[in-house]
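G., before I forget:
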Amino acid sequence: MNAPAAKASAGPGRPKDLEKRAAILEAAKKLFPVHGFDGTSMDVIAAEAGVSKLTVYSHFRDKETLFVAAIEARCSELLPDDLFPTQPRGPIRESLLRIARSFYALVSSEVSISLHRMILADQRNGPELGKMFWQAGPARITETFERFLRNAVASGQLDIPDPPTAARHFLCLLKGTVNMRMLCPGCIPEAAPEHADEHVRSVVEFFLRAYLPR
Amino acid sequence: MNAPAAKASAGPGRPKDLEKRAAILEAAKKLFPVHGFDGTSMDVIAAEAGVSKLTVYSHFRDKETLFVAAIEARCSELLPDDLFPTQPRGPIRESLLRIARSFYALVSSEVSISLHRMILADQRNGPELGKMFWQAGPARITETFERFLRNAVASGQLDIPDPPTAARHFLCLLKGTVNMRMLCPGCIPEAAPEHADEHVRSVVEFFLRAYLPR
DNA sequence: GTCTATATAGCGATAGAC
DNA sequence: GTCTATCGCTATATAGAC
């Protein structure tokens, strides 16, 4: 008899829904990379998010769904569309140094390393997750850099017989130190900031020594 | 009255001990790399070894002890002492190609990748495991190759201002494809045998283009 | 010394109260 | 829609028989 108008007019209420969902996703993004898939329980995620476990299950069907959602969120927020320009401006050495520093800063960040490690560790669903990460990240960056190299070759600033291969080599060299740090944090003394730039410069010099026109 | 001599003379019998321990270790070496630490149960290891679970626990205090023992065993059997000579013989291009092929064959093997992935994924005991692997593997190989490069520079076959850095760069380039395959098996079309040698040759050519005396 | 059977604990997922 | 309490399952590690 007494009208439930106040509730009915608001519809099936879900105003708080979204911010709780966001809190859950944030907790998952924080915990999964650190402790891995098996090492992160749904209870801990719920506690970190400040909600109950069943609230977690109301927003995400199961653990794997939440896991994939967390990874995808991290990926999309890690990869900017304009990491570096494809048209060389000014001296080629300076351009390469700028690009190398941007790329190195991206791949050597703690959050990037955690994400990387998590994808490496969890091959539970075949290579699907890795393929997604690969296409969204490394593949796109390599393609962009390859375009940059081709432009530099066209303008006579570089002399590269095989730009695609050279692009892969360049980025691979930059990421080398990161792979070592992932294996054994603390083994590589070059982890310090001043040594990081030294690493970047050594790669650029190696690259120029091979591909600078003579 | 009836003498238990046959048994008593043999002492507190442990003749079967060693071969069962070997079977357990073999099962652990096979299963841990494939399914990871959490994904490999002691039951499955016992079944694979053909013994009971309690026999496993009688030889190894707990799961972590067995895990570390399995990794150490794999490491020591994967790293030969004489991967390549430190004294260059014949044309430098051929020497580098031989070294590159040996190194690539080592790091790109399935068992090596599995081991690598396992160490990366499980940082449960801090960086100790990674440090052990690093010092036993990559560190030793890099040092050996650095000596090779210095000899080549001394004999005038190469012109390298910074041999330690160049050594790291060379090996890092070779391992690049492997890191990609670890991330996303199947994403890289170069996994095929014929493309593998193409990769090795492209790295050697890049290296020589930079460091061949002019 | 080895095996069968079990104690104990933690996690993923769910039922019912408000 | 959200929370408390719980089921079902699995895995580590152990107790008792041969």
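Residues 1-13 of chain A have pLDDT under 50 and may be disordered. The two ends of chain A are 92 Å apart (CA to CA).

More on Monday.
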